[in-house]
Each structure stands twice: as C-alpha cells, then as structure tokens.
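FORM 7B: Structural annotation worksheet

SECTION A. Query
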Amino acid sequence: MPLPFWPRSHSVVLPDIVVPEVLPGRGQVDGLQDANHAAHHISDERGHSLPLQSQPAPGGSNITADSPHQIITVNRQRTESPTYIGRAYYIGGDTTIDERSARSYTPSRTGGLSDMEEKILELCGSFKLPPKSTRQILMETFMQYCYPWMPTLSQSELHQGSDKFKSLLLMQSMFVAASRISPAPGVESYASSEQFYQRAKALFWAGHENNPLTVIKAITMLHWYNPDGPAYVSYDASEFWLKTGVGLAYQIGLHKEPPQGHHRAIRRRIWWSLAVRDSLISVSHGRPRAINMDDCETSPPCLDDFPESQAQGELFIPYVEICCLLGDLVECCSRRRMCSTQRLHVETVLFRWTRTLPLNLRLSPKEPHTQTYDLLAHNFNARQLHVPYFICLIILARPTAASGEVSSVPVLAASFVAGIYEYFLARDQVKFLSPVFTNFCLVAGIVLLSVRPFPDLWEAIQPDLEVMQKCLNELSKRWRSAIGASKALQKAIDIRKAHLPGEGSSLTRPTSAQLALFEGVSFDLCRIWPVYEPQIALRGSHNATQRNVDSQGNLGEVFTPISDQATIAMADVGFATEGGEQDLLNLDFGGIGEWFMNDWDMTGFR
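SECTION B. Predicted structure
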C-alpha cells in the first residue's frame, strides 16, 4: 500500500535570504521563510510605547533590544509548512492519489495581517514587553519550573534567550507560563498573568505567527494559564488549548516518526510534551484523551533528542513513561475493563521504572551494609517525578466499595505522596507545582480515608490529611481547581468522621510482589508505616505472622506479576486478571473524576 505523501523542499539561495523552492500551493519545511516580512517595533515598559509600524525587513527574522528604551524589533514572516495527509492508507488499488497535484492551489490566506488586526493587537498590548530585568526573571522561572516538563524550545532558542526569540507569540506565551508561578514582585507589578495571556491569545487568534511548529510550542505554554477548574466550561482552560495543539500536531504529522534532520529532535519532544499533558489532563478531569496512541508512530523519547542537555533527557524520558502509563490506567477505569495482557504490561513497567531511573533521580539509595534505603537530600524534580508513580500504584491496587477490604498498597502509596507533599510545603515549593498536583493531592487524601475502620491507623493518618489540606489551600492561591478539590476532600473527611469505626473490615497484607513496587523508596517518607506494619500482622491474611523483613530491599530483582499471586482477591486487584476482558464491578462513571471516586465507599462502611 502506498505511503502518505510528504512534500520535499529544496533550498535555493536568494539575495540576503534562504527560501525553499516550492511549487504553487505546496508547503515548505518548518523554520524557512519566504521573502515577504513585516516588522513591528515595540518598546518595553521602560520607554514610551511606540506606534505600530509595518515595514520591509532586511534578511532574517530577529528580536533586538536597544538601550535605553529597549526597542524590540520583531520581524513577522510568512511560513508555510507541509501538512500530513494520510489518505493513501485507506485508498488503495492500482491508482494512487497524486498528493502533489492535490496541493497545487493557493491557500486562502497568503498575505500578512490586515490593518484592523494590527490595530487590535496594538489595543491588546500584544506588542508590549516588560523591562529586560523582568524578562530575565520570567525566562529563568520558566526554565527552572516549566521547561523540565515540556522541553519544547530548540537548541538555538535556548542559547538565544527570550530577548532573541524570533516569535513574539512564543515570547508572550512563555511570559504567561512563567508569570503563573513566579512570585517575583517585579513581575506582578508590571503585568498580571491575565494580561500576559490576553496579549498572547490575541497574537494566536490573529495568526501573527505562521510557523505551525512555533504555534504548537506556544500552545504548550498557554496550558499553564488554566484559570478555571473542570467544573466550568472554559475557552481558556488547559484542555481547550491541548486539543487545539493536538489538532495542529496531527495536521503537520507530529504523530509520525520524523525523518532524520535538523527538526527531528524538537518535533519528537513537542509531540511527547503534548502526549504527557493529554494524559495528565485526562487524569485530572476524567475525560477521554485527545491522542490515541494506536495512531502514533513516533517512538518514545531518547537521549539523542536532547543534544543540549543529557540531564534534561534523563528527567523527561521517565516522566513521559510514567505519565502515559497513568493515562492508560485511567482510561481502563473509564472504560471499565483491563485485559490480562494490559495489566501485565502495567505491572512490568512499574516494576522496572524505579529500577532504571538515573541515580540522581532516585529517592533513596540502597545502603550496602544494612540493605536498607536512606532518603536522599531533597531534589524537587525527582520528588515531583515520583508522585504520578505512587498514583499509579493507588489506581492499580484500589479496592472496590463492595469488597469489604482495605488494601494496603493504595494506603501506603497515599502516605508516600503525603510525605513528598510535606517536603514541598516545608520548602515553600507548592506554588511551583503544576495544576495536576491538585488532583494528585485529592486522590491521595481520599485513599487515606479508607482506614477509618481502624482507630490506630485513623489517628496516624491525621497529619497526612492535614498536609493534603494545607497543600490544597496553597495550590488554590494559583489554581482555582484546588478550591473545589479542597472542598471535596473536606466533605469526605467530615463524612468519615461522622461514622464510628466499623467491624467486619479486613486489612489485606501486601504480598512480596506488591512490596516490590515500593523497593527503592525509603519508608521515611511514609509516616504511617510504623503504625501500619503491626496492623497488617494483626489483621492480615493467613501469612500475616511472617514479618515484613523484605520491605526495605531484600526482595531481589526477579519480577513476579502481581496478578499471579494467589493471595490477592479479585476485589483487591480491581481488574480482570485472567481470561480475556472483564467489566469492572458495576461502576457508574457519570461525571468528572468518577473514574476514581465511585470505587471508594465514601459514605459509610461495608
């Protein structure tokens, strides 16, 4: 079957500029310009705003800053990129479609901005930039707290810095992301996040930037604005921008493995940044993902995609893996089924994930003499990286409301999450967390409530619940979704407190295969472990008298599927473990977040 058509570009040298040789109506590769440019001269807030000007630009596109008024010159260019058309996959036979002929017509928009669009952008302040000192603070904030989780800037952009960005849309969008988490007084006194956002949004809708790859980069930054939670329909929410970005990504074929070349690495990094955000938004909202990985041919990120920083690649690669796995788990919950092959894959990935992390991203190294794990010094990125891992454990081993059991694995994982958040709180780092940490906090808090039948454990989790509530209060100062999450958690706590400890509930003992998923993490992060371990021995299964001597590192490295353990009841597993596919236990997923909430007994005891 013929493959989809990808147009090729050949560069020809014209005076002072390089443009691709393009047939009428054909696209050209990302980053190349035609000879028509429009320049805007923009002052920052140190000087007076200058009138918007349009004039021919010499040579390439650039942004410059001149003292004392810091005049910024932005050259706008028309860039056409080839689109991906995959009709050849389903139209076969002897006659194929000549996609080159199908492209040979002029697009509807070939010129620059109209006078009205220029004036609208000027009225919106889209051509205004903050002083150089403020720009530098915003760039540093973005690089430290946003960029590690969405490495969408090219090597040349990283070296140039914000003052040398060739795209005004990209610059204003970066200011949006950075201003959402920057506490610097200089930033807040200059402009609010909403003002930065309105400037960037106006540039986007006016079509000021014509390079689709650059537009998608900007969209990944606009995700950070996210003014409302999932309780309200919003045209400014991260989910809205995500689906816009994914749609553009499909248009230019980012879901297909790119050929070797200058843009290969950045295209792959942009695609996987979208895929990660898609999974995390699905987890937060309980809604379907925009990306179906069955349609994706782009191989997972690798170190070759990060020529400028191996450390960045070592962080982003496991981040992509664990977040996409979390998205897969939530999808299985929403669809109420998981086949045995899927479950085995999930268990295998989780078992391997902590064991293959770079040493600097692990939480606890093994001490050779004691064979135990001691907690390493605080690493903000490493601890953020582990939170979705523990959320995966919570979902994988969650009990159902009808099971009559309290599973050890989700409760321990939730206590680990609380331990990580406690460090964030103590170091005043909660304000640097992305919105998805609101949902992680809520999920962990809800799970901790399942120990209400056991007085000793209920008392032990109170500090963890307090940490979760304090973190939600801090998150609510920046993310409105945390307001609803805090109220939901408090209501759940009040309901639980209204019931006396019940009888008949059993506390399942974690098997060796389940404990293997905690290997590599010090129980110093798990506040309830000293109280929990005796409870397991008293209330657990028939092998409860055997002490858990292996929980701190003597489990070995042989993977044993959890679903093969005879001691795990179906209710504890939650999914089908043998045979083909099996529905989850009569769950009703009707609203946002119910993929998780409806499986827990929130109103009483079994």
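SECTION C. Observations
Strands lie at 10-14, 17-21, 37-43, 71-77, 405-406, 506-507. The first strand starts at residue 10 and ends at 14.

SECTION D. Sign-off
Analyst initials: ____
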